[in-house]
Structure formats: structure tokens, C-alpha cells
Specification:
Structural class: mainly beta
Radius of gyration: 16 Å
Distance between the termini: 15 Å
Strand content: 35-45%
Shape: globular
Number of domains: 2
CATH architecture of the largest domain: Roll
Mean pLDDT: 87
CATH topology of the largest domain: Chitinase A, domain 3
Order of helices and strands: EEEHEEEEEE
Largest sheet: 5 strands, antiparallel
Low-confidence stretches: none
CATH class of the largest domain: Alpha Beta
Number of strands: 9
Helix content: under 10%
Number of helices: 1
């Protein structure tokens, strides 16, 4: 497992994700992040910061409807204010969070699009490797 803080930005400098204050942990294996991102992290030392450019053809997978989910409105805490277009963090049962854009909202349900905003665009990342640890044995 690796823990990284990173910022992703387009060629025009616009940030599409900023995980510098909320670092993420993931297995340093293919499929979790774009291959060039994973390759860069594999070659880094803890504390090192590196910039990486990922071409549009190797960035993120194509948009799929499987990444659009419906959530019953009753399962969303009443104190959370929602507006179509908002990006919020959803949490998996294992505690890992991921960004989701609210695309539809009514009294009964909220529809979130988990497809990445950066699909089919060249991406730049500034990555800092914070920690490396072994996966727990099963």
C-alpha cells in the first residue's frame, strides 16, 4: 500500500482533483490509477515529489453507465445540502473515499456519476509519496 498526496491538473493549469489535504492510500498496482501515475509512484522514495504527464489515451477509462449510481434520498443525512452539479466524497464500506458528481436529485433519490471528469483528456499530476507499507496478510 502507498499513501500519496497529489494534485491533478489539465494542460491549461485548471485543477481537476486536489488530494493534497486528504491523501489517499491504494495498492501500488495497475488498475487503481493511470499506469503512468502508478509507474511514477513505484520509482519514488518516501517524501519525494514528482510531476507526471499522462496522455489522453492512457489517462482514465471510457465513461460507463455502470459508474452512475442511485441512492435513496432517505439514506442521505438531512443536514447535507445537495445541488445538481455538486461534487462530493462518497465513502465505501472500507473507508476509502472517492469523488462523485450529483447529476439528478428529487424527493426520492439522488443520482451520482462516478465517472471521472478527466476522461479523454491529457492530465498532469504533482505527486508526493508519503508512506509505503505491506498489505496485511489474510
Amino acid at each position: 500500500m502507498v499513501k500519496v498526496a497529489y494534485r491533478g491538473y489539465f494542460d491549461d493549469g485548471a485543477t481537476f482533483i486536489d488530494q493534497t489535504r486528504q491523501p489517499i492510500e491504494f495498492p501500488c498496482a495497475d488498475g487503481w490509477m493511470p499506469p503512468a501515475f502508478v509507474d511514477a509512484v513505484r520509482d519514488m522514495a518516501v517524501g519525494e515529489t514528482k510531476r507526471v504527464r499522462v496522455g489522453a489515451d492512457e489517462a482514465y477509462e471510457k465513461r460507463t453507465e455502470e459508474r452512475v449510481i442511485e441512492v435513496e434520498r432517505a439514506k442521505i443525512p438531512a443536514n447535507i445540502k445537495l445541488a445538481v452539479g455538486d461534487v462530493m466524497s462518497l465513502e465505501r464500506p472500507d473507508g476509502q473515499t472517492y469523488p462523485a458528481r450529483l447529476v439528478e436529485l428529487d424527493e426520492e433519490r439522488a443520482v451520482f456519476d462516478l465517472n471521472h471528469d478527466a476522461i479523454a483528456k491529457a492530465l498532469n499530476f504533482e505527486i508526493t509519496l508519503l508512506d509505503v507499507r505491506d498489505l496485511p496478510k489474510r
